[in-house]
Amino acid sequence: MSMMTGREYRESLRRLKPEIYYMGEKIESVADHPAFMPHVNAAALTYEMALAPEFEELLSTTSHLTGEKINRYTHIHHSHDDLVKKVKMLRALGQQTGSCFQRCVGHDGLNSVYSITYEIDQKMGTDYHKRLVNLLKEVQSKDLMISGAMTDVKGDRRLSPSQQKDPDLYVHMVEKKKDGIVVSGAKAHITGAVNSHGHLVMPTAAMKAEDADYAVCFYVPVDAPGVIHIFGRQTNDARKCNCFLDQGNVDYGIVGGEALIVFDKVFVPWERVFMCGEYEFAYELVERFATAHRQNYGGCKTGLADTLIGATYALAQVQGTDRASHIRDKLVEMVHLTETLYCCSIACSCQGYALPAGSYMADPLLANVTKLNVTRHIYEIARLAQDIAGGILATAPSEMDWKDPRVGKYVDKYMKGVADIPAETRMRLIRLLEAMTCGTALVESMHGAGSPQAQRIMIERQANLERKKRLAEKLAKIGEQPLLVC
Amino acid sequence: MPKNSRKVKVALKYCGSCNPHVGLTRIARHLAKVAEERGDFQFVPLSEDGINVVVILCGCPRACGNKAEVRARANQSLLTAGESINGRHVPEAHLPSAVEQELSKILDS
């Protein structure tokens, strides 16, 4: 078996026994708990769509290791076409879910670790790449969903990992054994963690020699002993358990479902260790992962924006404002911003390049520009959606009152817009817009794949300001300048 | 009605549907109905041998599904790309029936 169906994915989750806590409760089955089902559903669609004829061109491909047909989420990019198809796949999935489908983080992690292990081996004589390839074969043959666990909790941001008062504030090796290593620490904001089959853990920042124990990269199954998941709260998450219509996006939720993963003296066998002390490669791994992940955001977020624009347009029709020129203009602006983001992701994919391992990565400068634009444009798109929707977005009655025998008739009567469209249609659209623009979903666009300043730092590193200065000096006749600046 | 083995083999190839300008599954559903009514052709996977016609369904003019290796799977091919069939403009509403007509021309020739 190399590709699972959505049903098989859910069944595979039921066979696992991860340690998960949410709202003070130990969760027995993520596939069957209402708090997690929307996230499981979204991830399941990455399996379903890979088997659907309409989408298989994007969501499936051929393994370079085995020649078998595999889910693209388990693939290592080997061409510009692969990079572009990833972006298109994300847009297609975003359109279908209107939410985060989680699987890209582990995919980006696999691609980053694949290339970096090759380069570590070249320099250090290690055998990490072979181990990673073995893991990759397993991931591909079993169609596993893996999380990409990079962000440490970081403690005092002024201090490096080894300077922290509590050594566990960055994931690190606490013991080296004959058959493996023991690690402790925690990774924060990990998307899809609770409904993944395993975690690919990577260092979060550049490291120095004194941080060598923190330069660790490894894979553990989601239910490995000592791995504990504490699931995060989201805006209006109680609605998952006691509402239907008021959830807005009933099937797929509002974000990916993030968790704090605690590693409490977790044993990792050597065959699952891909970096252990090679601190000088930590930054490069972080940069490659960040580039791969930031490349995505003009794909998935444009898919979400497509649904958001659609909901906004539909609500304007329900409210009778859709022909007003300023509404049309705002809808056009939303489309313009959306397609600008898409341009960025396509561009950084087309400008990508081959690495020594033979795999491809997106252009880092353009990928960071993509994500930085997402931190602004998605907010502006959401602002315009809220502008068009009106204040009802924040004041609409609940579905319980709509169903109440005493006041339901008033909700029906006074929530109606255009006469021949039922109030229910308007309420459903309002709730979808609320879910997509009024809380956790927006924060994801700001900080997912790194906060804006992280993108600015990488943009500055690659800006080549000196060459730009030389170009200006040539035109301004400052000093002796060649005919052409190359 | 001819036996299954005698039926003309038609395969569908989708572009991938990242952001289609037109409804591709509507065309596919219409063709499935036509196949049932005519009874002289059947849909088979693109991986099957001996395909007679491949209908390439692309959501926009970029036509990502229109690749040499796809066309080479059959003797004849038919390309829809957004609001067009084999390069001729066709409004979205008319696409299913227009694809049917083009396919019928091939099948009846």
Task: Describe the model.
The complex is a heterodimer of chains A (486) and B (109). Chain A has 486 residues and is of the alpha+beta class. Chain A has a domain at 285-469: Up-down Bundle (Butyryl-CoA Dehydrogenase, subunit A, domain 3). Helices cover 49% and strands 14% of the residues of chain A. Chain A has 17 helices and 14 strands. A six-stranded mixed sheet of chain A has the order 2-1-10-11-7-6, with no helix packed on it. Chain A has a four-stranded mixed sheet with strand order 5-8-9-12. In chain A, strands 3-4 form a two-stranded antiparallel sheet. In chain A, helix 8 (282-319) packs parallel to helix 10 and helix 10 (364-389) packs antiparallel against helix 14 (423-437). Chain B has 109 residues and is of the alpha/beta class. Chain B is built from three helices and six strands; from the N terminus they run E-H-E-E-H-E-E-E-H. In chain B, the strands form two sheets. Chain B has a four-stranded parallel sheet with strand order 2-1-3-4, with helices on one face. A two-stranded antiparallel sheet of chain B has the order 5-6. In chain B, strand 3, helix 2 and strand 4 (74-81) form a beta-alpha-beta unit. The mean pLDDT of chain B is 94. The chains are: A alpha+beta (486), B alpha/beta (109). Chains A and B meet through helix 3 and helix 4 of A and strand 1 and helix 1 of B.
